[in-house]
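The protein record quoted in full:

***
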Amino acid sequence: MSSPVEFLELLAREAAAVEFEGPLIAARSAGLPAERLAELEQAKTVALRVRALLERRRRRESELSGLYDTVSDLAGLRDLDEVLRAIVHRARHLLGADVAYMTLNDAERGDTYMRVTDGSVSAQFQRLRLPMGAGLGGLVAQSGAPYVTANYPQDERFHHTREIDAGVGEEGLVAILGVPLRLGSTSIGVLYAANRTARPFAREEVALLLSLAAHAAVAIDTARLLAETRAALEELSSANTTIRAHSSSVERAAAAHDRMTALVLRGGGVEDVAAAVTDVLGGALLALDAEGRRLAQVGEIDEPDRAEIVEAVAASRTEGRSVRRGVLWYAAVVAGAENLGVLVLRPEGEPADADQRILERAALVTALLLLFRRTVAEAEGRVRGELLDDLIARPLRDPDALRGRARRLGVELDAPHVLVAVGDDAIAATGSARQRVLSWATTYASTRGGLAAARDGRVALMLPGQDAGGSARAVARDLSRITGRPVTAGASGPSTGPDSLAAAFREADRCLTALGALGRSGQGASSAELGFVGLLLGAVDDGGDADVSRFLTATIGPVIDYDARRGTALVRTLEAYFGVGGSLARAAEQLHVHVNTVTQRLERVGQLLGVDWQRPDRALEVQLALRLHRLRTPG
């Protein structure tokens, strides 16, 4: 017999709604009175109401469980794609939709694109991009408000496009619900639930999808923050590495600075600086002076091309720091505007900025050492120059004191020495060029155990040895190369003892004057090599080359011109004739000609010079002119 208790049993076993009609049908069949049927109808209505309530609570429980799972996913966020796929899948499951999907806005392209799908079977649909404002999703993305349609293809509220309609049609979607993904007031995308049949979406379903969309937005923002955090951590790690490297470089630079400072204080040299640089930086280093001469080298390094060195030094001076050329680094060694040399480094690796500062500091220390060395050399040169000046001055005072001064400088005055006088053609320039010549002479003499000084417009050198002519030629040759112009040097000696040096210098000075008078500027010779002509010319007070030329022209000029025009040998015949004491036969024998030829030549000389050319006073002038002519054209 039907009773209200049957509805409780149906509720207990979660029967379908249609089964709640069973007790009423049975009661009508049994012919129960109308009062009983009304009571059962009321009981059925209450039971269905209770069933609906229980159904809603179960659904709410399922929704809350899904949201809880989503929150758990967010709390353990590792991979954004996995979290978004889980949210879309739960949206489809909780709303009982055929398809769920998510689109995100593309700020660069100004549209929105498909990010995740669940339940989709159309490749075209999965690749859709929606312009802002187009379709249901485009309108949601643009407006930031939820939209729902029970039948999208026939809904005229939305701006339909061929691409969107084709994709939706291929997927077979009819009913679509779209809610925005919002971060604050900004919409970043859309979360959808869709059915392939017409279906209205309840307000609770819209609220549920909004909750899932909010979680999805949080997931996206969290992933963005995590990515930014990772990037920041990577930057911090990189910065920390850079700071450690910089700190190491600074410490290395400080250690190098202290080491080079100690080198200066204890009187180290350029070699010590080069060793310190390579100990700190590794590689090899070459130190060159302003002339390209090697000052020091540590390690294997080929000397660069001279043109490259000049260009790199100029660039380093202009920029005020070291410069790179290929695998080599150059640091100019300068003092004010003066170029003193260059340091050339071949590092083992790529040097840091602090390493370049070490090389530049080494160049500065090298400049200080070179200036200090120069100052010491100049001081010693002044002492040596003052000694030589006292030795060649007149009158000579206290020879024994001079011997003692010389001995303290490593010079033994009682040993043989030659005196060399360098002409004003070497020191005609002023300022630094003149100082350079004197500095060279001081170094040249001191390295050979001698002395050098500037005196009366000359540079005087006292050099150990006995070959006066060879010393003069060596000085003229080396100093010409240094100055880039011909240099004349006259010499005398050897001389022994301080008493003889003044006279030897005057003789060297006369020899220098004679070389100029003979037109042999740019050469070196000794007074002994010039003979009596050198002494004669040196004794002339300022004759000069013009006087010699006038004397030659007046005395034997016609003979010289005749030989030049005719190709004859009158000058050679005269030299042979006077050389054998005026014997025609012996002159002919020496010239390998017949005696008549000698006679004819001498007659021609008489025609050119006058018949009295053999008179003793004229003959002496002719012989002197012949010797001068020979000395002016040696060889």
